[in-house]
Amino acid sequence: MTQTISALAITEKAWIQDTGLDLFAASFFACAAGLLIMRLGDLKWKIGAAMLLLLAVDILLIAEHNQYAGREGVGAAIHIYCVYALGILFTLAPGLIAFGLRQVGKSWYRFSLGCAIAWVMFAPLFFFTPNAWNGAYERFVAAIMITWVAGVSWLLLQTGRKS
After folding, report:
1. Which residues have C-beta within 8 Å of that of residue 28, sequence separation ≥ 6?
2. Where is the chain membrane-spanning (predicted)?
3. CA-to-CA distance for 37 and 120, rounded, in angstroms?
């Protein structure tokens, strides 16, 4: 639990983690596609869904450049820029999408906005977490993202079954 996801990606079993990150990226792509099909909002909705597409690409880049984490060079620069982009994109996308989800129900609005607020409150603290706790804390903030994707996926499945 002391090792970060990126640190684990430089082991000989890194392909397992890279596959998981690739599938996680695919989940954001699927959510973006499903949300665009729902058409629940105006410009905020479309921008939020577009940010999810960018987030999917960003996570793919992180998966492919995570072996450079903590090292010098171009790969390390790409990795850290992608991590910063992830922080910004996951703050804004669920926040913008929340306004359209209000049409589905107030609880979905609160859920999406709550995930964005929790993320913006807790994710930056990772950079101040002691090294002995980095891995555990990173998994905690990753759980916020996983919760949002799982919740929106459930909503999309339920919506698809009704139509």
Report:
1. 52, 53, 55, 56, 59, 149
2. 20-38, 45-63, 78-101, 108-128, 140-157
3. 27
CB-based contacts of 70: which residues, under 8 Å, 6+ apart? Answer: 6, 7, 76
Q: How far apart are CA 134 and CA 140, in angstroms?
A: 10
Write the pLDDT tens digit of every residue in 100-110.
Answer: 999 999 999 99
pTM of the model: 0.88
Residue 74 makes CB contacts below 8 A (sequence gap 6+) with none
Q: Which domain holds residue 128?
A: 5-162
Is the C-alpha dihedral spanning 41, 43, 48, 51 positive or negative?
positive
Domains identified in the chain, total number: 1
User: How many Å apart are CA 162 and CA 38, to the nearest integer?
Assistant: 12
Alpha-carbon distance of 8 to 101, in angstroms, equals 36
Q: What is the DSSP string of 68-125?
A: GTTSSSHHHHHHHHHHHHHHHHHHHHHHHHHHHHTTT-HHHHHHHHHHHHHHHHHGGG
